[in-house]
Every structure is written in structure tokens, then in C-alpha cells.
Amino acid sequence: MRLSRLKNTQRHKKKKRKDLWASIGLFALLSAMAFYSWDVQKSWKISEEMTRYLSDETKSISSEKSKTADVLNRPSAAAQTISSEASKTSNVVNTKTTRPPTLRPTNVPIPPEPAPSEGPADNESSLPPPLNLIPNSQLREHDYFSDSWIITREKFLNLERRRLGIVEDACFVAIGRGGSVYDTSKMFVDWTDFMVEHMSKWWFELRILGDSNSAMFDLTLSYFASYTQKVFENNPTQPTTFHETIAVVAFAPYKSRIANRGLELTFHSLAATLASLYQVGFGRVVIAGYGPEDQRHVEATLEFLASKASSSAAPPPSQSKTQTKIGNTEFGFAKVIEQDWISTKWVNFNMPRGAVIGLQQALLGNITTPENNANNDDDPEVTSASAWLGTNHDASYWKYVYLTEPDTILHTKLELLPAIKKGLDDGLSFFPHRLQPIPHGSDLPSGTISSAHSGRFVPNHVLPFSNVTILDPTTTTKDKEGSGVDDNSNSVGVTAYHCCDAGPSLEHENCGTWWWTCGFHDGFVQKDFSKEEALDKHKRLAMYPMMRLKQGTGVVFGPTEHARKCVPSKDPCPKSEGQ
User: Fold this and answer.
1) DSSP three-state, residue 188
2) Pairing of strands 468-471, 495-496
3) Which residues contact 478 (CB under 8 A, 6 or more apart)?
4) Closest C-alpha to 208, from 136, 128, 289, 268
5) For residue 319, what are the contacts with CB-CB under 8 A and spacing of at least 6?
6) Residue 59 and residue 516: Cα distance in Å, rounded?
7) Which residues of 416-451 are buried (b: 16+ CB within 10 A; e: fewer)?
8) I want to staple 398 with a disulfide (CB 3.0 to 4.6 A). Which of 125, 197, 246, 349 is the partner?
9) What separation in angstroms does the CA of 338 have from each of 290, 291, 351, 378?
10) CB-count exposure of residue 318 (10 Å: 0-12, 13-18, 19+)
11) Which residues contact 92 (CB under 8 A, 6 or more apart)?
12) Burial class (CB in 10 A: 0-12, 13-18, 19+), 262
């Protein structure tokens, strides 16, 4: 009995010792975890302090990724809106995945360079409330590309000419570095807040420069002329918010083997582009060119633009040989004076590079008198600093720079301009959505359809292409009330006031050209198809809403050229999270 009690006592003591050691181990584990948690928090605070003060771009990009990690796998509200619609139409889209064509040739090396002194500024908590921006984590680098942007003077002067190797680099150099996007590069959830109509690919698909039948060519010019006239009739006065902005147009004329077509298309397209910049109220618009032919084209365009303004309620224009002032906007031509401004080892003619470098040199005071230029025979009116900066203000006046091309028509909401300006002052850069116009049967009057093969345009009487929504973002809330517009967004001709970003769509099979042009391939345009056959040819476009911008050129558009999608809506777009 005593032996049994002794064994029980020993087992009890042994169990207590085990429990004691287990408690000590648990306490040590909890203490280590608490210390680790404190250390992580301390490290995080240190990291935040470093990120706040360091301007190195790589650290800024890393900071952005850490701040937005919680939204990497969560779609935006607008993307959720479109998910059901995408599933409805996915049966007509070939889902074989192939990456869309890249804008940057893979054989063009981009040498590593030190980060410029300018870097992302300010915490995103300082964003002005009215701006509804897409989180950077939901955008790909090429989504930002539109050959257009608006940035501050300081950022513009820090764009490095060494990085302007190919034509597209003038846009990419402002977007980011080394394939990573600056966390200050922004795009809007509502496409109608800041977007451009990119027209040249549209008219190239219509083959207007080489077709002996002039019907399609005349139709194209009528769209541009109508838009230009409409701008001056509807905007007798201009906003002044962005008068301290200088816009630079990287210019090159279009050419055709048919007499005068290149000239006519050039000045109608450029005039529409310039009219869109007048509408926003930029104080100075400089068209940067290179040769004497460029100057003649621009002078003809400015004369045409002045005639449109003279026949409207806009202020009477004043003109000299190379300068035209309409309202508060001064337009002028400036000639690139150095060959190395437009030439690199990759391309012989890079006009966006020349436009950026030329304006930089003018703002920095490095263009003085014509005698200091390489070619002393040049006209001083187009080579001096005033050719770039205008005659009404000195270099210090200009605070913002807008870059674009002569086939790119800008659209924004005028009431949003103060918020956009504040965003720029807070350190942001803005990149417009690049609308891709689609040759569509509804854009062709009956007289021209008979002279064009059906392969040249998307059929107008086949669903879903026959549903064309009219986008009217300039209509105010008061104007919407009692308009009597049908709320069925699938009805033909229904009006919407917003277009909410729904992200990139499914990637499409590679047909050897831009994905959206597969149905307009050379082997198709010279043929006639039944409606069903035409639908099959354009199946890649079937999941995208077809829209027409009421205050734009009026032609139908669908996605962006990189397959991004927006959903037309009568209601404002949902606020984006994690922007």
C-alpha cells in the first residue's frame, strides 16, 4: 500500500513538472510573438518614415505595392458591375489567351539609368475628394498609354531625353520606369472625366487615303469639320483654370498618293485636335514640326481654324503668319532646330521626342536667338523661344504641360478642371483613356454603304453591335431630370452620362495585327459578308458596348486599343477603393 502511494506521488510530481515546463514554454512563445509583433510595427513605422522622405522611384513603387496589397485580388466596384455582362457575351469571344501586342518593340534595349531627382510626391491621402481614380494595382503599364498626358512643369523638365528612344517613349517616360508605374500616375474610373478619341487607326481601317472612291474620305472630313464647328458654337467663352498650361502637339503630316488628300486630312484632323484644346482653355498650344512642309500644313490649319471660329459666337481670332489667337488661347508653330532632337539609334524620326526636348529647352532659356541655332536660314518666327512659349507670357508663367498628337481629340468635364488642377499640384500625373473608334455601319450614310464592302465596318443590324449608347457627359444633373430618356441601357440610342471602367477584358487570339482589327484584315475588307459572317469576323468586339460621344466626333467607339472596357451608366460610377 505504501509503495503504491509513493508511486502515485511520484507520478503526480512528474506531471506537475511537465505542466510547469509547458507553461514556461508557452509563456516564452507568447513573449517572442509579442516582441516580434512590436518589432514589425516598429520596422513598419521606420519604413513609413523612410518612404515619406526618400524620393528614389524604386522605393516609391515598392511602397505603393505594400499600401495596395489588400486590393490586389479584389476587383473594383465597376469591375464587379460588368462581370455578369461579360459572362453573357463570353460565348461569342474566342478565349484562347494570347498577350495583346506590345507597344514597345522587344528588340529595343532600354539601358539602366539613375533615377531622376523628381519622384512621386505626397501621400495619396491628399487626393482631392472629387477625383475618382483607378487603383494602380488594377492597371497595366500599357493601359496608361494614349500618347497624351498632363503633368506639372517640374515633372516635365525632369523627363530625361536619354529615355526617349522610340516614338512611344514620350508617353512611357512619364508613366513610370523599368516597366513599373509611378504611384503618382493616375487614370479615372469614369472614362468621361478624362479621355481622348484616337482617330488615325479608324480612318486607316477605312482605307481613305488610298481608295479611289472619295465617299469614305469625304465622310471622314465631314466628321472632323462638324466637330470643330460645334466646339466654337457651343463654347463662346473658355474656362480659365488651365490657362497656365502649355500644350505641345508632336506634328507630322499625313500623306496620300491621291492629290491633296494628305493635306486635307492633315488640317481637318489637326484642326479638330486644336479645337478640343481650345475648349479646355489651355493658354498656349504649340505645334512642333521639323520641315518647311510641316510649317505650311500648320499655317493652313490655323487659317482654317480661324475661319471656323469667325463663323461662330467665339471671339474674333487675330492672326500673324505663324501665330493665331482665338479667345484666350494662342496657337503657333515651332520648328525643331537640332537633328539629334528627333533622331536616335533606334529611329530616324521621333517627333514626340523633338517636341519634348524643344519645349524643355525653351522653358529652360536655352533657346535664345536664331543666330545660336544650327540652321541660321530658319525663320526667326518659328525657331526662337517665343515660337514655343508664345508672345504673351515668359517661361515662368507656364505651370503645366499637356502632350498630344494631331489625331487625338481631348474630352473632359469642365467642372472637374479645378479638382484635376489640385491633383496636379498635389503631385499627381493624369493619363486619359484612349477611346478606340470602330468603323460601324451606323456611321455610314446609305449612299456610302453601297460603295463600301461590308468587310470594312461592323454590321449595324446585328446584335450586339446594333445597340449603340449615346454618351453625353456634359449634361448636368438638372438637365437630366424630366428628360424622358428610356432607362433600358440596351436600347438603341439611349443616353448615358458616365462610362465606368470595368478593367481589361479577356485576352484574344493573335491574328497578326491589333486584336480589334482582326475583322478588318486585308483579306476581309474587299469582300461582302452576310450579317452572320460579319458577326463572326468581329467576334472579338462582341463583349464591348458600342457607344457614340454626343459632344465628340460622333463616330462609334468600343474598347481601348488594349482591350480595356467601360460600362455606360446613367448614375455616377461607384467610388473606387484603395485609389
Assistant:
1) strand
2) parallel
3) none
4) 268
5) 302, 303, 306, 325
6) 37
7) bbebbbbbbebbbbbbbbbbbbbbbbbbbeeebbee
8) 246
9) 9, 12, 12, 12
10) exposed
11) 535, 539, 542, 543
12) middle
Q: By the 8 A CB rule, do 127 and 423 touch?
A: yes
The pLDDT profile of the chain, 579 residues, written as one tens digit per residue, is 443 444 444 555 555 555 555 555 555 544 444 433 333 333 333 233 333 333 343 333 344 334 333 333 333 334 444 444 433 333 333 323 333 333 333 333 333 333 433 433 334 444 445 799 999 999 999 999 999 999 999 999 999 999 999 999 999 999 999 889 999 999 999 999 999 999 999 998 888 888 777 888 998 999 999 999 999 998 888 999 999 999 999 999 998 888 889 989 998 999 999 999 999 999 999 999 998 889 999 999 999 999 888 877 677 788 777 789 999 999 999 999 899 999 999 999 999 999 999 999 999 999 875 544 444 455 777 888 999 999 889 999 999 999 999 999 999 999 999 999 999 999 999 999 999 999 998 888 765 555 556 667 888 878 888 899 999 987 644 444 433 333 333 334 567 899 999 998 766 667 777 888 888 765 555 556 677 777 788 888 988 999 999 999 999 999 998 899 999 999 999 998 766
Cα–Cα nearest to 187, from 566, 572, 517: 566
All three cell numbers of 342? 528627333
Amino acid (one-letter) located at 437: P
Closest residue by Cα to residue 490 from 528, 449, 446, 547: 547
Answer whether 344's CB lies under 8 Å from 165's CB: yes
Q: How far, in Å, CA of 16 to CA of 558, rounded? A: 76
